[in-house]
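Researcher: Please generate the 3D structure of the following complex. Treat every line as part of one assembly.
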Amino acid sequence: MITRMKELRAIRKLTQADLAKRVNVRRETIVFLEKGEYNPSLKLAAKIAKQLESRIEDVFIFDEEELIE
Amino acid sequence: MITRMKELRAIRKLTQADLAKRVNVRRETIVFLEKGEYNPSLKLAAKIAKQLESRIEDVFIFDEEELIE
DNA sequence: TTATAATGTTATATATTTATAACATAAAGT
DNA sequence: ACTTTATGTTATAAATATATAACATTATAA
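Model: Done. Output below.
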């Protein structure tokens, strides 16, 4: 999974800390997500997409093959 | 969060076991998800949506307020 | 250049998802 | 009624997301 969080966050001029606060997680969590180091819960993904004024699938992008087998 | 999994699964004529196998989880996991008892990982949500030929947000529906604090 | 803000790192603890297994009930077919 | 298939339940274990805290590095502004 790759993510456009960092890019979208920059566009909205939000710092990691800003975003973390808005979606109610720790800033470290945002760091890990931006590094693709983990797979957020759907709810967190939805909150983040909302703050980035985007759709979930435009923020978190899966390769076709990741979703098969 | 409410989910339309059960309904969409019925339309595609998939049993819980079928769907579980396709997305590589246990059937019990599907049961819990259909009951809304937990918040899947984004990746699992994406796999399920794919098998149900739907978009994530049409399968798992959040109330506005759930995404705000 | 120095201060401050922003980002990144690491280690450990806690919470929640998912797996596993065993059994129970319901529905559907014969 | 019996058999099979689908769904639901419960308890426990394992895996992984997230919290927490402390510190390191990089960028930016004064």
